[in-house]
Amino acid sequence: MAGNNKTTQRIVGNLRIALAGNPNSGKTTLFNAITGAHHKVGNYPGVTVEKREGSRIRGETSYHFIDLPGIYSLTAYSIDEVVARDFILDEKPDVIVDVLDSTNLERHLYLCLQFQELGIPVIGALNMSDEAESRGIFIDDKQLTLTLGIPLVKTVGSKGLGAEELLDCIDHIHDQPFSSRQLNYGDEIEHQLETIESAIAADPAFAAKYPVRWLAAKLIEKDSNAYERLQEHPQAAKITAIAKDAVAWIEKHFGKDAEIIISEQRYGYIRGAVKESVRIIRKPDFSVTEAVDRVIMNRFLSLPVFVLVLWGVFQLTFLLGQYPMDWLESLFGFLSAAILNTMPDSLIRSLLVDGIIGGVGGVLSFVPLIVILFFLLSILEDVGYMSRAAFATDKLLHSFGLHGQSIFPMMLGFGCSVPAIMASRTLKSPRDRIITILITPMMSCGAKLPVHVLLAAAFFPAHAGTMVMLIYAIGVILSLCCAFILKKTVLKGDPTPFVMELPPYRAPTLQGILWHVGEKTWLYVKKAGTIILASAILIWAITSFPAYEPTPGTSGGETEDSVRNVEAALEHSYAGRLGKFIVPIFRPMGFEWKLAAASVTGFAAKEVIVSTLGILYRVGTEETEESEGLRDAIRSDPEMNPLAAFVFMLFTLIIPPCFAALATVRAEIGWKWLGFELVFLLCLGWILCTIVYQLGSLAGLGALL
Model-level pTM? Predict the structure, then answer.
């Protein structure tokens, strides 16, 4: 088919480039290769969809890249699709770089044709071109450039190849007027489009705001958002009538839905373009991806393999993380002893040892585990296993009334609830989205991991990894059961069909993995230096005041008197009084006042539970370098036993997440569902933990475990 040429003058100034494309096209990898470490992450105004921006300065030119969420079409349904479309339409970037998967070019060009109708300069990045050639797919980029009418650059984002050529192309497209070739849909459809375009262009102000060609095509496709935007036009009612008449004529003439006709015209053009410019040399019919998938995607093996992979992740996390965690604990113990030995007894010394080191140090000692867990999960994501996990669990999720794609937020919940809740925006059904958001906090996030590790190592040292895996498994089972209940009660409805591509297995890049791990670890450490530090100081204050006057003992010597006075001072403090006041609520679960107080402080951030326990157990108060660690202090508490420790781990798993996650829930689904989430999780946690503790006590598990 022939193309239509239109000319647009370039925009002068710092270049704003939208990096767009289909999911799994390697878009973010290319973004990282171009911008390096010069990027920042935030949210789009008014929504919690993540926005990643990066800059690159080369010579006298500043390039500002915006990495848009992956989309398949400019007809948007999910929130991230809406965000990508609205950014391009409303913000009008200087250039759109459409990242195309060279191994699946025909499907990816569909979005590219829509970009060309926007009147914005478009560059195609033929990404993963090395992988395409290894499969016998050779793309004649010069011929394809002539056919599509846009410049194309071969890139390999994982290796940084083609990044400089892409910047050269961006420079070139702004050194001369931009010529945009737009698809000709054929005489019958073009006639209808021209009629609509003429009516829209009658108002120059409106025509300057929205691309006339794109809007006319979307009206024929019956895009609801296009009709909403049309309402800003002074002749909206007239143009709506013209568009509906055009749709009726096209459907009568072709005997098909107008949207299908438009899609067929686009794919027909794409097939012709690919046929002219792509040469495929058949290679031996063997694919590593297919060979591996025959095993791990087998309908009988996929779910056991998924469980085995997760179990292996947690076992490896503990195996590799135990030694550096012990080293950090020893370091903070040494610092405490050094301060105790060099500073006189005072409030400042108590603040440093009991508040800051005992609180923040306890959290920072778990950084090695967090790093290793994020590292392993990043490998699984980059390799391509996460998509397989979604398919492996799809049938199971459907039996509980969930969408197969809900597995992504749930698995992200193992890292942090905030991005996990945000990831639910990919779900197109509002009902599925709400259910996924409500159950995601039951996944054991990285902030809960220190609590689980602390108690598992203290009371189940020979099986710590298995116990933590059990808690994670309980979180998954509980979330599925709750989803089933919600689907049958307050959120009735059938799950939507699950359609998603399985990307080929790819070797992860060390740079990409380190970037992901560094970003997430830094957020954890930053939280330790801000929220947790402030919380630790506050907790120290309420455990230190009002002052307690110790009384000398006569029965056990100086050490025993010291321990007794520390316990008495804690019980006399505001924290002790609070804990004893609320302990009747927690006692049915087997919690005494220290665990009750720690549960309350954990609402700010789950890591604060460890800080609170470190302060309440006064870790490091002995004036020797051999001060006992927090695990030993909790284990030696006569009021603690393995059953109570397990129930506390369970309670920490179920209760509402941190304030940041709750704020994300409110932003995503509103105050009503936030209130429901708080009440639901608190009641579920108390009832379930009470049942487990009471039944365990009757069975004598407190003494046996």
Answer: 0.62
